[in-house]
Amino acid sequence: MAPFGFATGSAPRKPVLLVAESEESIQDTYDAEKWPLAQGALSEVTLRSTGSLRTVRTVAKLRDTDAEALKREVDVMKSLSHPNILELLEVFEDAKSVYLVTEHCTGGTVLRRLTSEHRFEEMQASPLMQQLFRAVRHMHERKLCHRGLQMQGLILATSGELGANTALKVSGFNYACEYDPDQPLREACGPVGYMAPEVIDKEYSNPCDLWSCGVIMFYMLCGYLPFTGSSDKEVMRESHRGAFFFHPKSWGNVSDCAKDLIRALLKRRPVQRYTAVQALHHEWFRGPKKHMDAAALKALGGDAKKIEEHPTDVSTSDLGSLDLELDADPAVEADVPGPLVVHSSARPVLLSETPA
């Protein structure tokens, strides 16, 4: 069998172009600290003509590389133009690699920032979620489903403190595809922990992206995922069940308004789940500190000025018992069907087996 991306024959031939539109070399256009660029990694390059910085993702052309998936990813990214979606600027290709050149972002991933801060205040999370919903709305208007939304795929355009002017970029389009509202998608794919129940059931459409948004918002505000387990299989079972908790220790300082939006996104039935448009019209985006619950207001003594200065500095002593969110769905306790191949952020897992 010929190596991936090459023509067969006795004499050496030029590599077959998979996604690039010309044979122009990336080294003729960009300068890098070191060539060749590391495969499977992100590299910083400089556009020789202007000195502008760009980021390059280098994809190795191997036998097991999914050429169709790579082409689909490139086509999807080329079709999208939105300030909250990472822009694909150019594509180059040589005998060994495909080079995806994107705009240069310096803020790192949202996950990295969350790891350093443990959790986000509502005033930090609100602008990020608003931009995420705008990106999802843009994709869905074009009948494109992301299917892989996760914290690792959200990029901050610049470094510095999070605030209203922090720009968010959605990336990670390796699972993205077109969809027909009248024809369900049936490929169970996406990062474990972010997949909607209907994706696990292999019958779903674009509402699965809003479930992922709900998981992301939950993660931002408390610092952990709503569906967890000791293995990928257990996480999938919990995601399929759809039960999640607002534990007072972690959620006592979070407004009821924020929790209400999360509930609307993590509806187990897709038809009951918020769309991106509905999410953008939610009152939480009119100012999280205006929607603090009664316990939070009492903890701050009802002082509006104090609330303005310390919007989440509240006590959890009066918040009562554990808040369990569980849809009244007769199938909510159903076991995860199998066997099922799950594409996690680490590796595919067959749910009929015990993951390593």
TrEMBL record:
Name under which the protein is recorded: Protein kinase domain-containing protein
Chain ranges of the Protein kinase domain: 31-285
GO molecular function terms listed in the Swiss-Prot or TrEMBL record: ATP binding; protein serine/threonine kinase activity
Record keyword Membrane present: no
Record flagged with keyword Ligase: no
Keywords, in A-Z order: ATP-binding, Kinase, Nucleotide-binding, Serine/threonine-protein kinase, Transferase
Alphabetical list of InterPro entries matching this protein: CDPK_Ser/Thr_kinases (IPR050205), Kinase-like_dom_sf (IPR011009), Prot_kinase_dom (IPR000719)
